[in-house]
Amino acid sequence: MGRFIYRRLVHGLIVIFGVTIIVFVVTRMVGDPVQVMLPLESTLEQRAAFEKKLGLDRPIYIQFGEFLGNIARLDFGESLWQKRPAMDIVFEKLPMTMLLTAVGIGFACAAAIPLGIIAALRPGGMVDRVTVFGSLLGLSVPQFWLGLLFIVLFAVQFKILPTSGAATPAHIIMPALTMGLPTLARLVMLVRSSMIDELNQQYVKTSFAKGLPFVRVVGLHALRNAGLPIMTLVGWEVIRSLAGYSVVVETVFAWPGIGLTAIQAIERDDLILIQAIVFTAAVCVVVINIALDFIYKLIDPRLKLT
Amino acid sequence: MNDCQNTPLLEVRNLVVNFYTRGGVVQASRGVSFQVAHGQTLGIVGESGSGKSVAVQAVMGLISNPGRIEGGDILFRGRSLLDPAGRKFVRKVRGKEIAMIFQDPMTSLNPVFTIGTQITEVLRHHLGMTRDQARKRAMDLLGLVDINAPEKRLKQYPYEMSGGMRQRVMIAMALACEPRLIIADEPTTALDVTIQAQILELLADLQQRLEVSVILITHDLGVVAQLCHRVAVMYAGRIVEVGDADQVFASPVHPYTKGLIRATPRLDVVTERMVSIDGVPPDLISPPQGCAFSPRCDQAKNDCLRSQTLTPLGDDRHVSCWCAIKGDTR
Predict the structure, then answer these.
(1) Nearest CA in chain B to A206
(2) What ipTM was reported for this prediction?
(3) Whole-structure pTM value
């Protein structure tokens, strides 16, 4: 177990190190950061001063060493746009995205697992066909359109939900639904097919022959075996959302999360903030992957943690 | 146990089970009747697809889509398991008074739960035991089926055990609530030969010590001769001959039974080739009229196209063959 944690942390550090190199190279080598960040009409003196301020006048390896040192202290420098430490902004916005992700994907799981199981109990039955149809529909609808539809429907037409922002708990309902529905559609298909496979396994017959209650056989014995693929997809959805796919939903609903901030930072050429966001996303991906491996092992003891 | 010495423990009457498949209605069980008395072992033999497993799965209430029980009755201790009032009874009986051991121990245990969990859940559900009580009982059960170091085994997962060991666990699980009837559906088919012998020995020993009734489904006539008091021979969804095991083997009446016995390799007779029964089993979507075996039977005549039922032949012996009944066989 200790060996596993050690190996995973080393792996994770390598990944994060790789990401920092890419971030460093992309921001410094491709194009001139000074030209990108300063207004067109700035003078040569201004440019030189700015270069000096960012340390861009020094040799590249020194810059890289300093960059790594700063990252180790989680100090990316001041955001050019907001004039405060970039990491402060990330720590302020990331929890909002985490909250949105938790509610959205939580909703998707809460709906997809029972629905998928019920569909799997009678493949080809009424519930199954409706579920598969609804799922295909959910997969085909673009997220931004879904979000706009919700706004038109619930905010404009019925006036029961706020349009955008994050002022009250009610504000999270529409963005979470918009985020959760495509996930729900993907997840329900997977739960359904995994459960159909599991329910045909011999051990399910054994469990029924043991006289165990239906709910225990289906909801515990079969579902735990179907757990691996389900967790894989859920993990992927969480990673996707935290690593930036939340941007569509956050933009539509002006949800002050990391995705919206990333888009704004890009629009304003705030390279410092972009660096901080990309680095944070990489750390999130690594951490979630390690967590997933633990969850796999909890679900299926046959797996070896390596 | 004296409450119903006269009624058989289990009685299956005219059981009809159909499977509604795309290709048509498969008539897996076409009026199967048999009885199991207290403390008795009944062997059911027949080739693959003859409806042996379907018949016992119906007893366990394990027939699921697209299969349906469409006729007959199953009585356990004189009470129907099929009528509407019986559904509650089934839930009480299944896994508690009737337990089942399956063919393939590699897939019959849930791979992601410990042996301990899988044994104790039966005890906790049916007998309302606490965690500790169930654990103690589970250890006793593992001892009963000759598994060493039960404490350690309880914490293990199926993948940490051999096939023979897993089948012992299955048997322990079946014995958990001291059932009156154990149904063993080809319990040794998936095991290698030396383990087969051990498992059968264990089953026979437990059957005698615990005075439990057993239905043993098998392809192996040798096993039946060794372990069973009575034997039922199935063919194409029907029982064609049933009776005392020794008698049936000594003097088979139905041509199919004769064929089966002739096809069993023997050590004491030198044969050039394996003997087999000519032809193939019938398609159960459209079974032949009358005796289903008649197309393969060398004694078939016109009578055989008429439908027939199991007819008593004295000494608790029943057979369904026109030739045998008229006494002009051999």
Answers:
(1) B108
(2) 0.88
(3) 0.86
